[in-house]
Amino acid sequence: MRLELAERLRCPNPHAPTPLVVVSRRKRDRELLEGFAGCPVCRLEARITAGHVQFEGTASAPAFAPTGAAPELERVIALLGLSEPGGAVMLTGRYAALAEPLAMLTEAAVVVMHAETGSASDGVSAVLGALSRVPFTDATFRGAALDDGTPRAIVEDAVRTVAPEGRVLASVALTMPAGLKELARDDHEWVAARVSVDPVVELRRRQ
Ligand SMILES: [Zn+2]
Fold first, then answer.
1. What is the CATH superfamily name and number for domain 58-194?
2. pTM here?
3. At 62, is the pLDDT very low, low, confident or very high (cuts 50, 70, 90)?
4. From the CA of 121, how far away is ligand 1's center (Å)?
5. How far is the CA of 166 from the centre of ligand 1 (A)?
6. Most buried residue, 89, 95, 133, 170, by CB count within 10 Å?
């Protein structure tokens, strides 16, 4: 896992938002390869092995298995607005098949949620465990691509982890969660932009 992403790990349990404390055992360049992450509030622990993050008490089996053909790489990069290099991107399901080429082409750090343990490669890390929240702090990702089969709780929570103006690309089988503005839709997918985090303040005269 890219070091700057590891610093944005957040406890997925339902208590006040709390960053995980990360202890590094082995690094290579910008990648954290081996280590631990722990929550100071609820004591949840995660093990970092070969760059992947495995939360405790969760089976290593994927929460869902991708179905269907891999999406087209250039199209996904365009729809997610990743023409500028860098940043971080989250993928689920069959979009995860694009993790390595997407990381190479866009220089983005790619997080695959609910993955099977894939081959470790620089810029790609899997988050393993049947989590009900995305274990990253708000506005971590430039974009997210969410496949059919992504748990509803993850779809809804993913929105806050995408930066304002960042894109969410998803299967039409997934109802668009709050906090997004639809940009386009076809028979298979919709793409939306994260609306600004600041709520619109309505000025009212006091009585
Ligand atoms: Zn916790």
1. Vaccinia Virus protein VP39 (3.40.50.150)
2. 0.89
3. very low
4. 28
5. 27
6. 89
pLDDT tens-place string over residues 153-184: 999 999 999 999 999 999 999 999 999 999 99
Sequence ranges of the domains in the chain: 58-194
Interval 93-146: pLDDT, tens: 999 999 999 999 999 999 998 766 555 677 899 998 878 899 999 999 999 999
Measure 54 CA to ligand 1 centroid, in angstroms: 15
Distance 86 CA to ligand 1 centre (A): 29
Q: Compute the distance from residue 196 Cα to the ligand 1 centre, in Å.
A: 27
DSSP assignment letter at 9: B
Q: Which residues surround ligand 1, an ion (CB under 5 A)?
A: 11, 13, 39, 41-42, 44
The C-alpha atoms of residue 69 and residue 93 are separated, in whole angstroms, by: 11
